[in-house]
Amino acid sequence: MVVNTIHWFRKGLRLHDNSSLRDSIRGADTLRCIYILDPWFAGSSNVGINRWRFLLQCLEDLDASLRKLNSRLFVIRGQPTDVFPRLFKEWQITRLSYEYDSEPFGKERDAAIQKLASEAGVELMVKISHTLYNLDKIIELNGGQPPLTYKRFQALINRMDPVELPAETITCEVIKRCATPISDDHDDKYGVPSLEELGFETEGLTTAVWPGGETEALMRLERHLERKAWVANFERPRMNANSLLASPTGLSPYLRFGCLSCRLFYFKLTDLYRKVKKNRTPPLSLYGQLLWREFFYTTATNNPCFDKMDGNPVCVQIPWDRNPEALAKWAEGRTGFPWIDAIMTQLRQEGWIHHLARHAVACFLTRGDLWISWEEGMKVFEELLLDADWSVNAGSWMWLSCSSFFQQFFHCYCPVGFGRRTDPNGDYIRRYLPVLRGFPAKYIYDPCNAPEEVQKAAKCIIGVHYPKPMVNHAEASRINIERMKQIYQQLSFLCAKSPALFTLQACWQLFLPIPTTAVMTVQEVVKVRELLLKTHLHRRHRLE
């Protein structure tokens, strides 16, 4: 029997550690590697030009690597449920392989494809390689519920089987007996499209700071591992102005798109640590970036509402304000706080910001200053951030807004002081906000306090050339901390009345007393009670 196989690339855009592709090739007569691009999705989804450029570069790099193996990438236009029945017949397919997708949308999509494959008599090969562990086994080990604290998650993975070794890279030797039928008009029919073909305006688009693709990812990994002193002592570099800039060793976008295998990264770190530490077992903290990613994947895998408040059983139902004008100022870098505006400008221009910069702008939007829902910030990051990942993006926003996983709401990032401590001279501000370049370091973080003669000398009048601060930070943060106190007090009240219903969120403890100086109106308090009761009912439903 002739075995004609399709490998469907989605996130794992690589040839190293691709176990589903490797298994699919074994015993196959023909192989076609495909990527399905929905043209409607390209034009309507909340994904910005930098993310699309990164994806297209990943596909171009993958196609170039396949060419070296006498194969090609087939970029197919359409929706998977429409595409596969046609391809099964046209190419007489007998086998389909792809990487397991743990996210709710992906599982729903794949269930539909599995049904189509079964009806067509097509064999399926699905392997886990986008995560270190089988997430379902972590949940099973936790009594059928996802762990909702990172500490609990760490305890669970300590009881799991060791991480599986990466699969061997696909080479000519592996693929030599498996032909790829390629037509003369392949590029016209199945080539990687350009940004212009997808409807993007590219005039003025600067060179990519983060080039996409497996080739770039592996080069960055080697540079990352050259920092032997960092691995040996596992000391985070001290935060400074240079830390805020894109690093040639940065890996997060490559992990998100699967250009870099998380398992390869994991074992490279392990091997290097053991080499410099004379075979000592690495601490879990060495893998922090990978394990936080794994934690959020685990908490999200069975929760289709993980990216929203409504219906989300792990999210505190906080009555955030709706303020489109304030949201737009934040997203476009027009808050009047240079530290916040520089971060958002870098994000929009380059598609990446340092993790502490993410903390600063997320806190400012939500519980720190503007009291706007984390859902809105998550959408902006989804559009602009190269490494925005459904599970990690939503989980991080819930965490930073104290909506889940983290409850120390009294810790706020000052939009002036934090930046000043990080970069006292203001070089980062000058790089991304050239309008403020002429201000001395003394005033660059709060130029509104600069005397008129200083503003004139800097050729930037605050309120004319650069906006005044949109809020009084000291007052806004004080009010918002009081709001959070009241919300958590109400939650604690419900928890005390029915503690068994809250065992899933063990980190929600009895907190601070209701402040004597009320900040909320009576109507707001009633709304909080209603929303918290909704949270309470979500938990009861999950437990039942």
From TrEMBL:
InterPro entries: Crypto/Photolyase_FAD-like_sf (IPR036134), Crypto/Photolyase_N_sf (IPR036155), Cryptochr/Photolyase_FAD-bd (IPR005101), Cryptochrome/DNA_photolyase_1 (IPR002081), DNA_photolyase_N (IPR006050), Rossmann-like_a/b/a_fold (IPR014729). The keyword Flavoprotein applies. Binds 1 FAD per subunit. SUPFAM superfamilies: Cryptochrome/photolyase FAD-binding domain (SSF48173), Cryptochrome/photolyase, N-terminal domain (SSF52425). Its cofactor is (6R)-5,10-methylene-5,6,7,8-tetrahydrofolate; FAD. The record marks W320, W374, W397 as: Electron transfer via tryptophanyl radical. Coiled coil: none annotated. FAD binds at Q289, L290, L291, W292, R293, E294, F295, F296, D387, A388, D389. Residues 3-132 form the Photolyase/cryptochrome alpha/beta domain. The keyword Nucleus applies. GO terms for molecular function: DNA binding; FAD binding; photoreceptor activity. Belongs to the DNA photolyase class-1 family. This is Cryptochrome-1. The gene is cry1b.
